[in-house]
Amino acid sequence: MKKILFLTLSLLAIVGSARAQHWSYEEGQHPMETFIYADLVLDGETVNSGDVLSQYEVAAFIGDEVRAIGEIYTPQNTPVSIYLLRFRIEGEQADLNKSITFKAFHNNAEYDLEMREEPLPTFTGETLDPGAPSNPRHLYLAEPTQLTMENIVLNVGDEVDLLTQNKCFKLKMNSDAGAQPYDFFGGQLGEMEAITLRKGWNWIPNPYIFSRTFENAFADMVFTEGDRIVGQDAFAEYNGNAWEGSLQGLSWSEGYLFFNAGEAGRELIYASEFDMSGADDFVEEQPAPSRFKSGAQLPFSYDVRRFRDNMTIVAELDGTADSNRYQVFAFVGDECRGRGISQNGKHFITVHAEAGEQVSFKLYDTLTDQLLGVDQTVQMQQTAGTLKAPMQLTSLAVTTGISNVENASQDGEHFDLGGRNVNASQKGLHIMRQADGTVRKMIRK
Q1: What is the model's pTM?
Q2: Helix, strand, coil: what percent of the chain each, to 5?
Q3: What are the E-state strand segments in 377-438?
Q4: Nearest-angstrom CA–CA distance, 62 and 11
Q5: Distance CA 133, CA 136 (A)
Q6: Contact by Cβ (8 Å): 112, 40
């Protein structure tokens, strides 16, 4: 049974003993240190058993490097026994202000610990993390992020019993595997049983022989506003009446993350495939443009399989009347890491990055053929923005104003605010793209 895990960070002066099995770190490699103390909460209750706590190995990371293994400690002179984790996180000058992230290892699987409260812990080089014990932080356990079995290398033709019924995994292939395909075989599934959902994140499969739209797959299901289904490079959120987003349905052979915005114990009910016809056709989204109209290359290609995790963002373009003409792309540094799909005035952006990386955005204006910067950035996390409270993105483009003229120039292409071509003599507000690529706004009276 999947557990919902919280890690509450507090700051106490304590010491303890380590039991590292999956990760390892030799202390004394770096000259500076920061101490963080934590208690572990499973299914809403604090772990007050050393035996239970010892089953969870928790490590602290700076970037991809392990910098501490949590040690079990019981504070003295307390009215009841309290079991905590103590982290002595080491670093150096170059690590100052870098994010500290945490992972847990339990039952042969790694779990990402997600923090939703700001500010996130950073390496300060000071003895104690500056957070206040009276206002502890919380880290939430995500689903198993990869199949973690030591010394297993898959070769073509191998028969290895790796997967367990009713469980989902992310599988990281050996880099030497190249583009070789691997086939996985199992027994006939038959009718799909309902899945009991916990509040928050859950794994869900596509149990069908064919790809299915949400409307067909979940014809008998009542969803809650704010529910979210996340695939590898697309997602959708339920608005109370229908699904909105870049994900159209469940693709054959793929697994998904489902965010349950309702109460724990709800059942996810799949409709019977015996009552359906052949495979459902999804509406394919338009591919990202590869070149400016001038012929120059656009920096929009990215590889979703390089990264174990993604972030899903619902965003709006602040102050933009016709946001559907813009395409949003996510970057880490100068490298493209994802894109957004425009729908009903909102942008559904899927980002691929590592924990702690800072994500920025660019807008491609399909009307003016311009690439614009965005003022906002966000640190890599599981989600940002919702349909009810989307993240606001503000373009850095400079508005040059509107020319109030009696006769709009005939030279160049003319568009209305919806991006449609109009006759140069038509009355109203025009956006004109001239032959040299410059854009002007003008009023034809």
Answers
A1: 0.58
A2: 5, 40, 55
A3: 378-379, 383-384, 391-393, 402-405, 413-415, 428-433
A4: 19
A5: 5
A6: no
Q: Which of 21-30, 78-87, 233-242, 434-443 holds the top average pLDDT?
A: 233-242
Range 18-22 average pLDDT: 58
Regarding predicted confidence, which is higher, 375 or 44?
Answer: 375
DSSP state of 297: B
Cβ pair 325, 358 in contact under 8 A = no
Q: What is the mean pLDDT of the chain?
A: 75
Those residues with Cβ within 8 angstroms of residue 384's Cβ, 6 or more apart along the chain or in another chain: 311, 312, 313, 314, 315, 378, 391
Give 405-431 pLDDT, tens digit per residue.
Answer: 334 445 677 766 555 667 777 766 666
Residue pair 55/79 in contact (Cβ under 8 Å)? The answer is no
Residue with tokens 């293994």: 69
Per the CB < 8 A criterion, the answer to whether 289 and 364 are in contact is: yes
Biggest CA pair distance of the chain: 85
Q: How far apart are CA 318 and CA 164, in angstroms?
A: 46
Sheet holding 228-230, edge to edge: 200-205, 255-260, 228-230, 235-238, 243-245
**SS3 label, residue 403:** strand
Residues facing residue 141 across a β-bridge: 113
Q: Which two tokens stand for residue 287?
A: 């591919």
Cα 314 from chain centroid (whole Å): 11
* Cβ atoms of 330 and 349 closer than 8 Å: yes
> Rounded to an integer, what distance in angstroms lies between the CA atom of residue 84 and that of residue 70?
9
Query: Domains of the chain by range and CATH?
Result: 5-147 (no CATH), 194-275 (no CATH), 304-393 (2.60.40), 402-444 (no CATH)
- Say how far apart CA 223 and CA 267 lie, in whole Å: 10
